[in-house]
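Q: Is it fine to ask for two folds in a single conversation?
A: Yes, each is treated on its own. Send the first.
Q: Here.
A: Result:
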Amino acid sequence: MSLFRTKDWWRASVAGGGEEEECDGLAFCAANLDNDPSGDPKVAVGTLGGVLRVYAPRESERADGEVQLGPTSHANSEDSVIEVQLDYPILQLEAGYFSPDCETCLAVLHPRLLAVYALVYSGSAQDLQEVSLQRLYEHKLERSAANMCCGPFGRAATDTQDNQGELEAICVQVRQQKIPSLSISRSCPFSRLTRARLRPQVPGRPA
């Protein structure tokens, strides 16, 4: 018997054409994707149909000002930051310092493409600002991608959020005996062909 229980704090449902959308288990991330000064995290979700959605979850309030928790705490139009139809299925999403042009970027892994984006605001008045998805750079993959991971990869890790130190690198694993890209910003300096076939594995699951 557990002393704890869970409650729905926020949820989002997608209504579209009667067709259910499918998502990969890695096509999800949470971070301050729009680089808001408040630091509030946003939730990004990608689908195998190529739809990228970014939400800014907030607590719902009743008319009496009380915070409303439970199944009725659905997302509304104000919670949606952006919804974009991309050209290819989305396999995985990662957030990090991948470009000197943006503190927090969004890396999107497609079957044959790795693209890095930034959420950009335009407009003068805060209430009238529009959000757009700006592609910073991309790397085409010679083989079908399986997954990716990011980090310093042997370089000294620094607090990139405060001092804009070393850029994070992105490593992509493909399904055909190769790790093709250790991507650092717009360059791809490292590629290694392995003798044995690599077995793609979802983090947290047994091999």
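Q: Second one now.
A: Result:
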Amino acid sequence: MSHDVNPIDLSVFAVSVLFSLPVAESSEMITGFVGYNVTLPCSYDAKHYGGIYMCWGRSEISYSGCDNEIIATDGFKVTQRKSHRYQLSGDLKHGNVSLTIIDAEMGDSGIYGCRVQIPGLFNDLKHQVTLTMQNIHNTTASPSSTASPETQTVISVTQGKPVHSIMMHFLK
């Protein structure tokens, strides 16, 4: 009894496996506070690649482009923006394409995807961020005696001022 494999069936199987794999190369979780600016980090080596197209989408990273695109740049200037609340306030010419959400709201919670289109097949830099928004007036943060550097959270907040990063340390 022979079990010949049809090359077309094998190709269909390979493509279906490829498209079932996760797309994000890196991911992280960020906590933001209602009424403050929050920055979601993303960067690439602009010295090596120069100014190139990138986008932020409001969903998991797709296999091409950005689903639910909220902001995009050609590497030199913002070319598309869904709302004035979305800013690329980093230095684009140095590859800082971090997304700043101005005056963040509870509805900003969710998954964001940064895609930098690196030349060549399957070379794109993909970074996924899960943003959790909290109302600072209803939140009580208490230092934990068991916190370690691995459990520290980087939170970037501002209220109507340039973005500054604040490192919250909960150490013994």
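Q: Anything structural to flag on that second result?
A: Two points. The chain is about 10% helix and 30% strand. The radius of gyration is 20 Å.
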